[in-house]
């Protein structure tokens, strides 16, 4: 994930496998970095000869100009309230945007045993 763009990258070959649609709405990385996680993969839903569905969530982040405003000692901008979710194994990949209860940035996402994200 870079700003609002995402790719699937093969670290062995150094090549991009595919490019995903731009994440709508806002920039998601440094300095107000969004949190991201691969959601729990349910192996029992896999059909013979097919890969298990894989979904990624990217939550929060800050506006692109947040760093410059902070450096200039201007009022700080709030973090984003949204999460983008994308099933990277779908044939027609698209982002689904959800709203969180509170803004979030520069955080880690922890997957609990209940499959909830903290």
UniProtKB/TrEMBL annotation:
<dbReference type="Pfam" id="PF07250">
    <property type="entry name" value="Glyoxal_oxid_N"/>
</dbReference>
<protein>
    <recommendedName>
        <fullName>Glyoxal oxidase N-terminal domain-containing protein</fullName>
    </recommendedName>
</protein>
<feature type="domain" description="Glyoxal oxidase N-terminal">
    <location>
        <begin position="2"/>
        <end position="117"/>
    </location>
</feature>
<dbReference type="InterPro" id="IPR037293">
    <property type="entry name" value="Gal_Oxidase_central_sf"/>
</dbReference>
<dbReference type="InterPro" id="IPR009880">
    <property type="entry name" value="Glyoxal_oxidase_N"/>
</dbReference>
